[in-house]
């Protein structure tokens, strides 16, 4: 996966918006106005942050070296994924999906229903 395929994948999900609230070098993907993925464009190693269930976050960090506590994020709920080729694109997409689904589930019912209506 590279930054273009990450971008395309995120934007293919229902009701996703791409924003640059931290300046031109950090892509932020939101659903229902809430962040589910952050990707710095100017880092040495391609990486992105995704939200994760706290217990699963620990499990993934223990199992995969490319999964680290969320860089500049709440480390209980966010993981930083270093895209180094050690896990498949399918796995990366699964972690993106999990983050997206966690955020959708946390939205107010009316907003959540609107998002689900776009699927």
From TrEMBL:
Transmembrane segments: none annotated. It holds the Pfam family YjbR. This is MmcQ-like protein. It comes from Niastella vici.
